[in-house]
Specification:
By secondary structure, the chain is of the alpha/beta class. It is 33% helix and 20% strand. Strands 7, 8, 9, 12, 13, 14, 15, 16, 17 and 18 form a 10-stranded mixed beta sheet that branches. The chain is elongated. Bound molecules: manganese (II) ion.
Amino acid sequence: MAAIPDRLVIQPYTVEVETAESLVVRGVVLDRSYQLTPDFLLFLKYFEQPAGREEFLREQAGSYDRAELEAGLDHLCGVGLLVPAQHVDLMRSVQFAPPLAPPFGFEKGDIIGFLQAEQPPAAVVVGFPYDGATTAGSGARSGPESIRYCAPVRPASERIADLASGEVLNSFLGAAIDLGDLRPRPGESAESYGSRIEAVAAAVAARGSMLIGLGGDHSITYPLIKGLQRGRAERGAPGELGLLHFDAHTDFPQADNFHQLHGRHTHGTFVRNVVDDGLATALIQVGVRGLVPGSEAGRSSRLARSHLVIGAHEAAALDCAAFVGRIPAGLPYYLTVDIDVLDPAFAPDTGTPVPGGLSSQRLTELLGWIAQERELAGIDLTEVAGSPCRANRTAAAAADALEHCLVRVLARRG
Ligand SMILES: [Mn+2]
């Protein structure tokens, strides 16, 4: 636990039990109950608005023992009911569900502990069980749970061997924690949920940790990138960011009236929004395919640096080293994977499958190479549908590709 900051605020809570002997409150952010004594009402009321710790101690000094007041503050900070006031907006807008079982042997964590940890972890997993922005098949709301279910749980060991490539890697899997899922509200719009995604992404990036997002439909990526850029700016990191996008679709509608027709934030528009808002300077799209109506092939010259499309056939045929060589070096990338980049034979449980995609082996290989050879600032994997069960080969392929990538990303950052 870090030194307690001077300005504090209580996270939103409801009182569950209030008697002369007992006070039980439920904190909204983690949906968790806290057993207190009625004396704590003084603290809860005082810090409903952000207030100074010293100011509180001074004001109450006449009526209460200072050591007891300090112990009370320490206790509330320790359990995470009192949080640094800088997080007041985040605390008021988010609610998390804890992960049932974190993937890959990661530790379980929570957003409040993360924000206050002395040493933030290298990476955090956050699930976004939302599919309110799909235009065709839905079901991606079960993605986070299904990916976690299909992800192997690794023992903490110092080395991990990749039998396919013969590589032996240092394992830094312990450097990541799983914060659980950011809960959507019933019927919540993509704009509303997106603003909360952005707040979480900004807070994670401001601490210097990498966010690994489990979708959810592809609408989650725009706010993830926006928040990442905000958090990076807060740390003084350079604004240049490439977008590395694996998908069967370009998610980049060319028609100017597209937003009027479908709304701005859908799972099929995020790339256009990222480009229009200047959030990325380079765009590399991998695995796109299929016939679409229109006279534009989705290539854009509006990006400052470059727009490169490596279609599905090329992505399947290129030598891995040659593939990575086509991705400009010297800038960090945000990596987003729509699982429909895979052929429906490997990933049938997704909203908008397109024949002629990559094999799961190919995706795993390419992500491993990218993680090894390029700097990644954030990662997400979207559009996995289907139940959490052994038969969900879409989720199994997603988890496998993600793990091959993460084990190398964490080795770089470790
Ligand atoms: Mn997509």
